[in-house]
Amino acid sequence: MGKKQHLETSNSISNSSRERVPLLNKEASKQTNDHQSPNDPVSDLEQGDAVEAANVGFCRVFSLAKPDAGKIIVGTIALLIASTSSLLIPKYGGMILDIVSRDIRTPEQQSDALEAVKNTVLYIVLIVVVGSLCAALRAWLFSSASEQIVARLRKDLFSHLIQQEIAFFDVTRTGELISRLSEDTQIIKNAATTNLSEALRDLTTSFIGVGFMFSSSWKLTLLALAVVPLISVAVRKFGHYLQELSHTTQAAAAVAASIAEESFGAIRTVRSFAQEDYAISNYSEKVDETLKLGLKQAKLIGLFVGGLNAAFTLSVIIVVIYGAYLTIMGFMTVGSLTSFMLYSLTVGSSVSSLSGLYTTAMKAAGASRRVFQLLDRASSMLKSGDKFPEGNPDGDVELNDVWFAYPSRPSHMVLKGITLKLKPGSKVALVGPSGGGKTTIANLIERFYDPLKGKILLNGVPLMEVSYEYLHRKVSIVSQEPVLFNCSIEENIAYGFNGKASSAEIESVAKMANAHEFIETFPEKYQTVVGERGLRLSGGQKQRIAIARALLMNPRVLLLDEATSALDAESEFLVQDAMESLMTGRTVLVIAHRLSTVQSADSVAVISDGQIAESGTHEELFRENDSIFQRKQAIKQENGNQSSNRPVSDLQQGNAVEAANVGLSRVFSLAKPDAGKLIVGTIALLVASTSGLLTPKYGGMIIDIVSREMKTPERQSEALDAIKNTITYIMLIIIIGSLCRAVQAWLFSSASERIVARLRQNLFTHLIHQEIAFFDVTSTGELLNRLSEDTEIIKNAATTNLSEALRNLSSVIIGIGFMFSSSWKLTLLALAVVPVIAVAIRKFGRYLKQLSYTTQAAAALATSIAEESFGAIRTIRSFAQEGYAISKYSEKVDERLKLGLKRAKVVGLYFGALNATSKFSIIIVVTYGAYLTIMGFMTAGSLTSFILYSLTVGSSVSSLSGSYVSAMKAAGSSKRIFQLLDRVSSMPKSGDKCPVGNPDGDVELNDVWFAYPSRPSNMVLKGITLKLKPGSKVALVGPSGGGKTTIANLIERFYEPLRGKVLLNMVPLVEISHKYLHRKVSIVSQEPVLFNCSVEENIAYGFSGKVSNTEIEYLAKMANAHEFIEKFPEKYQTLVGERGLRLSGGQKQRIAIARSLLMNPKVLLLDEATSALDAESEYLVQDAMDSLMSGRTVLVIAHRLSTVKSVDSVAVVSDGQIAESGTHEELLRQDGIYAALFRRQLQGSN
Length: 1246
Known about the structure:
By secondary structure, the protein is of the alpha/beta class. The protein has 42 helices and 20 strands. The chain is elongated and about 125 Å long. The chain starts with 9 loop residues before the first helix and ends with a helix.
């Protein structure tokens, strides 16, 4: 066949560009306008069509309530009845005042008055019974509907996101999406539960109240309403500004969540470079940015609340003055004026509450804007067709003049005119340098992306015309870094069939992939849980399960992207042998860096710089003089890792729960630095509460004035002067009260922002220092849920609720004092009901706290599934399992919904009973007060003041119960958080020794026994004794899962041995300073983790991302990375994407090697460090590293035995023990395990 060059003229390139001109020009213009590069960190959420298309009206949240329309209609009717019943009470209260303010002197008149009061009270009792039942019904129906709305919103959002194209996930952090799903929807839920119900209640109360006001006096009503337009304009302006500010705040919070997600997911990398403090500073910086915006919000809210309070109260005073004038002049009765005042206060209170709810609604609108930007986002990938092309024979794949650049880096063309034919049943191999485009070809065949130009066909039909599910039944892939899910081995293998397949089928494919044997050694066998991203298994074990998973699909086209790279020689031979027979009749595309694995291919294509540089059979390419393939063949070839079990999170068991001291007061202990502000805020709150309660006192005095006999102009003039003097005092009180209200709202809100910022920073700091074993059993999603959703719930309790609770508490205490001053008899009667209410609240609170705790635990599980799904989107897409992911997430959301609905019933029952109890207590008080007034022990004014005090105190107690409900919800969340904060790491604390050897770099394992804490019965290392002399190079080889990587983990002190010691320079690791140890010891693992920042920052990670450019470039050259980095448009400033997904496996590995070399360690651990490199790159890196290793102690873990020939000694690790040790030649002469592995590898090569 010979060479086959694919070169294009500039004309054809320009033609290919014109095919996509609209998109490319649009993107380019955006980048120019925003001064951003294609590698800018800005997420897809913050630019492009998503923002332009988003229709972010807050009412869209409620459009999700259509299935609950019946409930909402019934709830609204109940709400109208409850509101009307509440407003009828002032009407009848006014009638009672008219009765008692008459001139009653004789016993007969007293008897008639008492009879009239009795009849009026009977009507009130009936009204209260009906109103309380409706209040309970309203609370239950609205709360349950809101739970269902948010459940649907979360499910809709997850379903929409999981269907987005892969390019979207290339530029959008998982943490940001989790923040939308948990924190933003929680904010929306708060607005759609309490706030929606309360808003409708306040709105109906306002409208009906205004109607009753007109019935009392149309003149007074028009005067009262004159101030409404001014307030409406102010509220609207404020709301718009607050919405924008909330939007920005949530964006900052999402970035903080992304950093947390990345840090927890890459905890081994963070630990191996001792960069916990760097992660903490990065996270804290973003939390501080969120805090600054929160403090700005707090000032704004304080100003708004104070101004609104002054405007409303002043409007009420104007009304009272005019009302008093009308009463004096005989146009109104005292009862009518009192009723009007009660209506005014009720309507004023409702409008004031509405403004507070409007503030919350605007915050929720800011959050909903982010959510609906995502829901409005249309995938840039063309929709799949509905064709089911059956070939004869089946499995024909063709790439025809394919050009491609990743959407995240459109100016960097990865494939340049690739034409490739995969005939049915053929085996085609792709080889070439890392980053040349091999994996990109597999990605395009899987239709993770669409080409910019050219076509890819399956059985002669373009992929975009083929049914999506059909395509992924026909095509299956096993990638270089396989992703497993946090479930059992059985479910992982059966993943392509929704986790369900027969045991016989699963065992059959596991045997084919040489996985059955090691699975059977686990205590739980096929039910063994593999952990998050499969971290409880070794690399080789993960790879074999991934191969079994792909084989179960029985595909017609099999894509093997370095599929056996993590297997030891014997396992690779057995898997290859099993797969050879399995490949018969299938089209197979093999992407490999080990040229030995492609010798049996029908044809080989050499991919270099996005083109097919050469193609032919293995023999044809080898015969060609100076061919790329021949140069690679002359260089090198062959790859292994670890183990663990158990799905139960560390949060749900053990000492964490027992040790947790979960009082909600601990949240407020974080407020000590703001103690001064809180004291001033509390003083302001007390002054505001007192001023608010002085108004009823002066209102009573006005009633006493207007209830006198005033038949002459002189008497009327005296009465008006008395009212004028009283009003002067009220005005002064209002000004002071409003100022103090503003100060209180600002200081408490700002303090709560600081409390939650400290809580998040403390929690993150504490978690990042937990031992690795903790992260083995605790999902990242669960921890993110604690950091975002749980702290958001606590924040709500510590902002609005804390301030309101203190205000209501002070109003209750001060109000009772004023009640005693009016009538001690009436006050004692009113307080008789308090113990009953207090006991009920306490019982209810305990139950609700436990229910809230369980609800949040269910929410955390849903978040974990979402985090795992977004992180493994390529695996989900390749198996077309979006539906399965959606069903799993929906199942957990539904579990949380059931608990939420249960809570809604309890809350409804509670509020109805509380409403009835408080109203009945007021009725009893009013009845007895009327009796005292009729009998001459009180004046009508004193009774009016007492009623106003009772209403204020009753309202405050009712509000306190609502605050208590929120506090109990927060207590449930705080329990989860403080379990984490109280958790003590099971690893002994590091010492402070900094041992310098002479020579340096002496490592020793002395009789080390070890089992992973998550599976203590499975001993991984059994008495390992190993000596690494300073400057020596020791290799560990052996079957996958034998314990090789575990040894490296123990030298890094990721875990502590159960028995024996690990020493550095003769000092046990436990006694050595953590930072010193990780300056001395550096590791490059099999699957390196990069961070979502620039190449430069990743290389300099060990020094907190700050090193000179010269050093970085020097080390990049040593690791053979400089050349490909320089090809990127942004060079060293190129963003690598989440977990480095914008780079090829080989590119990631070389950056990881450069990062490790920058540390200049004395001990270097290379855990199959060159497994992802092509032969030529591996040779160059190895050559650079050989000179660099001089004077260093090096431990090499390898399955490619060719890479260990030059070491000083080799240790064969099998079943947790060193079965053999010696030099390469000595072990071959022993003719044991090593010799058998070596022969297997030679057999594989041949």
